Amino acid sequence: MLPLGPKVLAFNHTAGAMGMSLFFVLPGFLIASTLIQNPDVYDFMVRRLARILPLAYAYAIVVFLILLLLIPRLCCSPRAFWSTTSWTTLTKATSMSGRCASRCISIWRSRSRCWSEGRRALWVVWPACLAITLLRVQAGAHINIHTRLRVDEILAGACVATLYRDGWARAARYPVVFAGVAALFWFLCSSPHTGWLQYLRPYATGLLLAAVFALA
């Protein structure tokens, strides 16, 4: 909501793309790292569902209570429920939670498919990430909210996890320069003015993550 100017440079769009790419890459790295350390997929799924489902149900309850406040006649008049105004409000209010649920399910399925075979299957994230990027190129989607066109950002984080070693910080000769270059590349790949370079945003974000680890 903070306007970043000048407007012609579209800094708000750039900042949004940067934030969302980081939002997806970090969980991809975290989940893949967890499975590398403990390849027990059943244990992983139980713990993840125990963390996700209570919040999902809590969110659904909050949305339901808000709907009752927005459309108080729903509880006392079945006829009013089917009125145009009430139904339109209900549809708009619930569409947000519906999209949220569908995204969570799609992302979860993508992760579980990649890692259902244990530690060795983690390496499938590399061709899978490239395949999703090629799908975005084919669709002409520099950035898209649909899971199938942005899951390469999650997979990019997982790719970093397959390469990560504790000795990165000691191995990097110029970590500050590396991090600066990675940050600049990340910014350029997130700008709407850079054209095809935006297709590389997942990889730029993954490179930035690697650069941060080299600084640690």
Structure description:
The relative contact order is 0.15. 72% of the residues lie in helices and 0% in strands. The model is unreliable at 80-87 and 105-117 (pLDDT under 50). The chain folds into two domains: 9-37 and 118-216, no CATH class; 40-117. Helix 1 packs across helix 9 (201-215), helix 2 packs antiparallel against helix 4 and helix 5 (125-139) packs antiparallel against helix 6. It starts with 10 loop residues before the first helix and ends with a helix. The chain is mainly α and 216 residues long.
Structural class: mainly alpha
Beta-strand portion reads: under 5%
Low-confidence segments, given as residue ranges, are 80-87, 105-117
Task: Give the overall silhouette.
Answer: globular
The biggest beta sheet, please? none
Euclidean distance between termini CA atoms:
32 Å
Range of helix content: over 70%
Topology as a string of helices (H) and strands (E): HHHHHHHHH
Helical segment count: 9
How many strands appear in the DSSP assignment? 0
Total domain count: 2
Query: Mean pLDDT, nearest integer?
Result: 80
C-alpha Rg (nearest Å): 21 Å
